[in-house]
Amino acid sequence: MDVLAAAEWGTHWELASTLCYFSKEFVEDYVAALGHASPLVRRAAAGGLQRLGSDALPAAPAVLARLNDPDPEVREQVMFALMDIGEGVIPALQEIRAHGPGHLRSHALTALLEVGGETALSAEDRAAIDRLIRIKLLDERAESVGETRCGVLLAVPGGDQQAIMEALDPSEPRPATMRLGFDAISSDRHGGGTRRQRDSRVFVTPQLDGWTLVVGSWYARWAELGSYDFLKLEPATEIEVVRELSARFGQAQSYWYDGELKLGGWLICVDGEVRRWYHESHPEEAIGDRLPVEASFRLPHETAQIPDEERAALKEFWGEEYYERLREVHARYGIPPRCAPFDIAAAMSVSPTTLGPQTEVVGHGLLALTQVGREHGVPTRGAFPI
After folding, report:
1. Does domain 2-121 have CATH number 3.90.226.10?
2. Where are the domains of the chain?
3. pLDDT for 335-361, tens place per residue?
4. Which residue among 9, 151, 184, 339 has its CA within the 20 to 30 Å range from the CA of 307?
């Protein structure tokens, strides 16, 4: 342990990694290491207990004592350890919530949500969270959401949430702040539960600058089960559904964005007619003329026309320096920026990426179950900001 604590920068990670791979016979040694003066040692010890999973349950009291460790990276690793040790730590966390010590109570609440979800909370804690949500909703302000967190959304004008719920068929709506709603959907869609639960909820936003967004698998009632147990909406079905929604609401817009693969597209319908459909993977099948906002951008499938010598010179650079040089080249040759679906959304309705203090907010958001959520439940684990 002391060798790791004294290790030079650059070699300490290798030593820490070694410390994480001892067997369950060394649980007591991990417990001792949790009390070491070096945060690096404490973090490595928590990582080792995390790797042991349920075999580390005897170390739970020592892990719980580090919930308020002064080092934030240790606290984070302790939380990961508790999640992987599993539900066996829930009674001890509930005991802390009920009887203290006081300096661990707030951390224990977060841990309970991460390990066991809402069902692990007492009735008093659930009521307290509901009260906090209602208080936060009284003066909620909009804030920007990153592109990778909003992969799928529908936009319709106005703020008639009841009509939207009737059209899309989600159920059991619960009031939710925008921060809570966006984070819950992001967690669902990126491994917060089982594969089927990926599509279990939608977040219906308050009215934002005259528009309401439905974030998540808004199309659940029309979709089919695709590969990996994810819902899949065929393009022809999506076009028909959004067209019909536009006949009901005047307009309806669908956006989808894959932050990892950098794929995306948009569908704009007005008064029951398709105005524009574009998908980066199928540009030859696009419907409708380019939108006015598209004129100032390079569409995702369109390759920037850079002279060969300029392109060869770019290969000498890496990381942020590469992108900085690339932007300089584009500016020099007048190449327009590449647009993303949320650039289109910002121009045509409202984009989660441009929300902020200037956004007019009317009403409050609702987190609701889709057909999948009713059948398969929602992810049980996850502590989200309110």
Report:
1. no
2. 2-121, 147-302+338-376
3. 898 888 989 999 999 999 999 999 999
4. 339
